């Protein structure tokens, strides 16, 4: 008979611990940037599909630390500090995510055919900026847009280079 009160107490403790771990709603941001590449899609993708090509785009280091370049589950380390894993692959794209479970961000690098001679490079970022102070969020988004506009210009230039 004394077991029943303890079972009720245990249920209350479990319920409170679950309620305390509920995550606050995120402040999700999407940044999608596009540029035309003067190459057929397959040719353009062949020049930028390497998972560590981002090192050249960002003018930093990148190494594959796990898995095979371009395959689902491959992990890269950028600038010796940022780890990202490929979470989706198509014939003309890949999507990556940060491996840190406290950070929610994903990026997709994609080539879309326009016609036989040109294609569109699309770079999409999706992230939760709740860890950024509210008064700095717009500046954070603008900084990322500016940085990736530069990355897109670099990618375009490298793809179209002879």
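^ Assign residues to that structure.
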């Amino acid at each position: 008979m004394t077991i029943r009160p303890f079972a009720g107490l245990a249920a209350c403790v479990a319920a409170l611990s679950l309620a305390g771990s509920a995550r606050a709603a995120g402040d999700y941001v999407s940044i999608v940037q596009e540029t035309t590449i003067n190459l057929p899609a397959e040719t353009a993708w062949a020049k930028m599909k390497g998972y560590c090509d981002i090192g050249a785009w960002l003018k930093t280091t990148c190494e594959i630390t796990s898995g095979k370049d371009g395959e689902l589950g491959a992990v890269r380390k950028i600038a010796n500090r940022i780890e990202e894993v490929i979470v989706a692959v198509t014939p003309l794209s890949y999507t990556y995510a940060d491996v840190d479970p406290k950070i929610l961000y994903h990026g997709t690098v994609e080539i879309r055919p326009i016609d036989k001679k040109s294609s569109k490079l699309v770079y999409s970022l999706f992230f939760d900026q709740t860890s950024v102070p509210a008064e700095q969020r717009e500046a954070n988004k603008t900084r990322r847009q500016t940085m990736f506009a530069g990355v897109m210009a670099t990618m375009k230039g490298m793809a179209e280079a002879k």
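The chain has one domain: 24-160.
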